[in-house]
């Protein structure tokens, strides 16, 4: 991994994305791993279509940066970052399915069910999800089995019924019965925020953060998760499909409740600014070491796609 000490976050983001891309390429090779029997070519191709060649890799970058805050770097950190990205990519494959959000475009390319077929897309998502836990549970990620168990448990809870999957269910329900503001915030904290929060928390776990520091990073992750969703809602309302590489204006078309729909663009932009100020306040005890994470928060708020 490159030395990130003096590079701006935008540069480090690209470098982490490249490093994660190369590791995912190796993890998704045709060669069966220990204990595997074979890797069917069509399924592997669909998994590679989903996981390679696109995306900012924000979640892996947040994991890498929070680990660095506690002096942790190297191959194990990168493996944990790649595991989070596998889980994220699985969620995108399934979210895009006709039974879910029914999208044809993702990262400027056909979605997996369009490039292959629905059954293959479902299996590709399933396999990316299990690969995430495979990577986290491997001793190559961390030599301490307690750390690996904590990471596996944290990712399971962030992505399961009380996290991302449950949030997707609430999102589907919102098309029939738009929620109030509290419901919108709960939905967003689960569907999008839980995995972003875990990405930050995982870096601190790998860095052996003490309980107070871990709690601060967990709160930072919650804030960034909400900020990411607010920025996404603003982009859905204002950006073009060409700029985003995926369909926009979907929420309004489906009558989904969002904070943008509830309060308007200006008020949502104001709320986004307040979140970034809170993120900076949460990081204040870390002093100058937190400069990169402050940059990351500002990047999330200002992103254009």
Automatic annotation (TrEMBL):
Xref: Pfam families: polyprenyl_synt
GO cellular component, one term: cytoplasm
GO terms for biological process, alphabetical: terpenoid biosynthetic process
Protein's UniProt keywords contain Metal-binding: yes
Cofactor(s) required for function per UniProt: Mg(2+)
MF-aspect GO terms: metal ion binding; prenyltransferase activity
Protein name according to UniProt: Probable farnesyl diphosphate synthase
């Amino acid at each position: 991994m490159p030395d990130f000490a003096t590079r701006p976050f935008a540069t480090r983001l690209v470098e982490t994305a490249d490093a994660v891309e190369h590791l995912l390429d190796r993890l998704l090779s045709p060669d069966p791993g220990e204990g595997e029997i074979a890797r069917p070519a069509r399924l592997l191709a669909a998994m590679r279509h989903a996981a390679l060649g696109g995306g900012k890799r924000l979640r892996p970058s947040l994991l890498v940066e929070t680990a660095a805050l506690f002096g942790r770097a190297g191959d194990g950190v990168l493996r944990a970052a790649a595991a989070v990205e596998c889980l994220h990519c699985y969620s995108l494959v399934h979210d895009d399915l006709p039974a879910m959000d029914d999208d044809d475009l993702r990262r400027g390319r056909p979605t997996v069910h369009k490039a292959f077929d629905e059954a293959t897309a479902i299996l590709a998502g399933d396999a990316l999800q299990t690969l995430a836990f495979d990577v986290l549970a491997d001793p190559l990620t961390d030599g301490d089995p307690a750390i690996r168990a904590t990471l596996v448990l944290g990712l399971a809870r962030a992505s399961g019924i009380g996290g991302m999957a449950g949030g997707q269910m609430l999102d589907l329900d919102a098309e029939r019965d738009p929620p109030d503001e509290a419901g919108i915030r709960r939905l967003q904290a689960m569907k999008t925020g839980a995995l972003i929060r875990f990405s930050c928390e995982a870096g601190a776990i790998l860095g052996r953060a003490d309980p107070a520091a871990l709690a601060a990073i967990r709160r930072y992750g919650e804030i960034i998760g909400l900020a990411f969703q607010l920025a996404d809602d603003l982009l859905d309302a204002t950006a073009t499909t060409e700029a985003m590489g995926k369909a926009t204006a979907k929420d309004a078309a489906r009558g989904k409740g969002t904070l943008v729909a509830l309060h308007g663009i200006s008020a949502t932009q104001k709320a986004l600014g307040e979140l970034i100020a809170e993120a900076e306040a949460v990081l204040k005890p870390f002093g100058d070491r937190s400069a990169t994470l402050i940059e990351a928060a500002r990047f999330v708020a200002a992103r254009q796609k």
